[in-house]
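Objective 1b: paired records.
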Amino acid sequence: MTSPALANTPTPLAPERLPQHVPLAVQTRDGLVESVHYGSVIATAADGQILLTAGEPLAPFYPRSALKPLQAVAMVRAGLDLTDELLALAAASHSGAASHREGARRILDLHGLTPADLENSTDLPYGAREREDWLGGGGQATQLTQNCSGKHAAMAATCVINGWPVQGYLDPGHPLQQLVARTVADLTGEDPQRTTTDGCGTPLFALTLRGMARAFGHLAASAEGGSGEAEAAVGRAMRRHPEMVAGEDRDVTALMRLVPGLLAKDGFEGVQLVGLPDGRALAVKVSDGGDRARMPVTVRVLAALGVDTSPLARLAATPVLGGGRPVGLLQATDFLAAPKISPAPEDL
């Protein structure tokens, strides 16, 4: 008879089923490599042509919160009409500052809704400073402080606008989620390889880095005056209000402020998407989910694409301290120099 403990033991994945990631970032301490972050990367042109790759960019992955701008496009297509500030919040993984909480509440108020209509999970503010302030004031985990509350308020509002039931708006069969699924397929050019549930309760699709890069390149180009009314609205809102997309002291906010025209969104488990105003885009997935490797890798790819990354020095590398003084560095590897990372077009 199998014991309960053995019965619950997961079956290890066979090596051939694991994505073939490559080393993207390393942390050194006094010249010795202390940690290595593996992952995959792709950069695409406005026409979808592949400009560079590393690892296995066609391995399916979950974009997590990097999917939010695409979800926001679906809602705008369905009639959601918000100010730029609030639309940026609808595409946000916000830090939980007062402006974020009040913004989500404003979206609800505008459509005759209350926080009781939200169906996302509860959580404390995501930002460290915002969490300390909230807890210092006696705050607890709520749906409004959870980092996806802007998106959920917008989803509930979109249901009101269209006469759809608000209750159950996260169900994959709900008209809202059906529209989101069609919009994601349209923007990425891919049919999801798998569907699951994100941490906040929203349906989540397995896509490729190439598909997500395609979508972000289109969003960024649309924000510059290209085609796609809903895409342009979301892209412009995010670029105009990066502090609503993330928050103060967040690297995504800094990235959009320091590089004019750049559109960026991160996601849990080491995901970063960037769109450039000329339609080029890049997508990064750090295989171990490590957040600290995400930005050094992104800056390395931006430099390879010819973007002036001199303002991004503090995002490109992080000092490693010993006794309060620098003794090492967290930085991207020279992964673009490895010959095996440039597959022939027929392999992609």
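Objective 1b, second protein:
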Amino acid sequence: MASDARDGFVEITRNGFALLGLVVVALTLTLTIRPQLQEAATAQLMAWLQARQLPNSWTSPSGFAALQRTTAGDPMDLPAEQASVTYWLSRKYNVSPEPLSVLVAEAFNLGERAHIAPTLILAIMAIESNFNPYAQSSVGGQGLMQIQPRQQSEKLDSLGGAMAAFDPLSNLRVGVSVLHELSVEKGSIHAGLTAYAQSTQSRESNYLERVLQEEQRLAHITQSVRQARAAGNDATPKMQPARWQAPSKAQSISL
């Protein structure tokens, strides 16, 4: 019985392989004669293989998408003043210069529109959060400029909602807008900064002193770059005073 079973198994296996070979030959001849069937079969096979691949976050499409989401840039593309400020802040606060360069550029852009010294905007971020876009205080301040999402819900809604507080550029824009409005309301940048500290509930007794000292350091860097550039052009360097007057109401900025 064992011998018969073995012979039967061998015979079935041989016939099975022979049948499989015939199927393969027939399928090959059919695909050769009809190229359109071969293309369709190839497409289905590739789709089947791709559907079973493990997701890879480092494939080219997702890589390009990540670049589009990243808030980073090359500091060497910035003007000399902004690049110098970027590298100085990078060393002091242990922040990569690439993402910091975008914040510096935006601070200069917003500062010009709001008539607020960009070095003051950067100083506020430094003291409020040490340039940590995910910082959160015990009293609810969030992000780079420690804005209060509940108080600034309307501004955040225009940028996508409460979670926009953790987007670096959105947080920066909301913070500058709040500072601008308070400075107009209070009549001076200094008074506006005091009110800003209250709005973010910064309870440090020396908050204003720390912000102003940091602003002076950053202003000195930008002035040194201007002087060096002016000396290179054989021109008389001119010191640029910080703009501490209150912004005009007509010069309100949009987010």
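The radius of gyration is 32 Å. Residues 54-64, 235-246 have pLDDT under 50 and may be disordered.
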